[in-house]
Amino acid sequence: MKLSTKGRYAVMALTDLAIYDLKGPVSLRDISIRQNISLLYLEQIFLKLKNKDIVRSIRGKKGGYRLTKDASKIKVSEILYAVEEKIKTVRCIKHLKKGCNGKSIKCNTHRLWDELDNHINSFLEKKYLSELAYRNNIERRL
User: Fold this and answer.
1) Can you name the CATH fold of 5-141?
2) Residue 131, CA distances (Å) to 18, 24, 66, 136, 140 in order
3) Cα–Cα distance measured from residue 33 to residue 24, given in angstroms and rounded to the nearest whole number
4) pLDDT per residue over 85-123, tens digit each?
């Protein structure tokens, strides 16, 4: 199981945006500098986030991006879904009878990985962007 940079960077960038959003629109350039993420990569990620109505862009000299709703209403799972990131611990499709090893039965450890998959996705469903932003603000002050 691996979470790609697209998913990790989307969560990092939106946490940054949630922290600085209170001061007005946040430029991708500023996020890029603070988070050490390529500006071109951020542009691709934010296009997907905009298409899924998680962020909106504001044009002009003081333009940038804003969250479309409060950070306390944005789940981490929603962010990952928006950038087409799927957390999977098994290669097979859960609802098909064909197993991940290409045979007609599931592998010996399928249930273990399937259960882990459920735990991970349940965990991400319960985590909100506001928690990450709040925790980051506290840690920066220490």
Assistant:
1) Arc Repressor Mutant, subunit A (1.10.10)
2) 10, 20, 18, 8, 14
3) 18
4) 777 766 666 666 666 666 667 777 778 888 888 899 899
Among candidate residues 33, 127, 119, 114, the one with its CA nearest the CA of residue 80? 127
DSSP string, the chain: ----HHHHHHHHHHHHHHHHGGGS-B-HHHHHHHHT--HHHHHHHHHHHHHTTSEEEE-STT-EEEESS-GGG-BHHHHHHHTT----S-SS-TTSSS-TTSSSS--TTHHHHHHHHHHHHHHHHS-BHHHHHHHHHHHHH-
With 0-12 CB in 10 A as exposed, 13-18 as middle and 19+ as buried, what is 87? middle
Name residues of the chain where pLDDT drops below 50. 142
Instruction: Report yes or no: 75 and 125 within 8 Å, Cβ to Cβ.
Output: yes
Domain boundaries, the chain: 5-141
pTM of the model: 0.83
pLDDT at 142: 41
